[in-house]
Amino acid sequence: xxxxxxxxxxxxxxxxxxxxxxxxxxxxxxxxxxxxxxxxxxxxxxxxxxxxxxxxxxxxxxxxxxxxxxxxxxxxxxxxxxxxxxxxxxxxxxx
Length: 95
Hints:
- By secondary structure, the protein is mainly alpha-helical.
- It contains four helices and no strands.
């Protein structure tokens, strides 16, 4: 079965939907972030917002780095005739 090719916009929408509906993210925020919040350091909601924003930005940077790296590596392998022939034969299934 061939994979369906998505446009960039559709891929971004699908990724955002998957992230929003992922209960692990909410559990992480509820279980992990409160230990770094101190009432004497200011409004709790503001501290949680800053920590949550930092978490999202770091995740976004990681995802962008992985995507760019994967595109670069994929482009390299696509330019190698041996890799293209192996992929057309079914990949590395026997290993």
